[in-house]
Amino acid sequence: MPGKVPVQVDGRAILLSHLDKVLWPAWSKAEMIDYYARVAGAMVPHLRDRPASFLRGPEGMTGPLFVAKNVPPGSPSWLREVEVVGKEGPRQHLVLDDTPSLIAAANMYCLEIHVPQWTASGGRDADDRPLHDRLVVDLDPGEGATVTACCEVALLVRAELAADGLACAAVTSGVKGLHLYAPLRPTPEAAVVGYAKTLAERLAAAHPALVVARMTKSLRRGKVFLDWSQNSTSKTTSAPYTLRATHTDIPGVSSPLTWSEVEGCASPADLAFSPESVAARVAADGDHASVLCDAAAAAALP
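The structure corresponding to this sequence follows.
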């Protein structure tokens, strides 16, 4: 396979390189780019206007992996950049607003894509901090627990959110847990974090054998940790449809779920999706998490 292949993606010129490079033991860079091209229609709405961070690995799973918040070197000049002010000071982040941007990121070995629960143009609070347009409840199984326990907890969380007028979608993390997202009207960070923490503590009190709301790892054995802190402005979560840098023959992948899949999960294998199966799901059914991109579904916190 040639070292470099020029392509046009929706009118943008991209020079794809080293397509035969093996990134996972049974998966090449060409397969990674093909996957992202196939799911782009469903994935890009979850990335649009959100400053992206990446887990990059130019040598794949056999080489070093590193978190990249700055714009990767060699980025095409047409990629959109926004400045984000964090604890380390201001940084320029890429924003993947369209299919060419997503393919360009994959070409730069951005194996995983992570985004915050706010958008670059979504408004600011009185302290000039971004207003959040999503609530995330990160369900993290402790030692001895699996994604089946996460599904049990997800149904409890869904009921609590519904009682407060919030719709939500379930997405596998692509590793071992679940993420639940609810679209919000623009809301200050403190209100979202406070709501998520109260929700986690309420469920932990009601279901102490199943749910834990504290971060202490020794408390998580056999339980599901509801990580409410992921709603902080500085935090990001793996984007729906992103690949994951798993030490497996092919990558793990974050897949939106139907609620019937959550309700019927009997073993981790039920929710273990391959990139090929996720791309096929998108082709057949569209985006099971489309509610997150529907402005009409956004609600105010109680």
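The chain has six helices and 17 strands.
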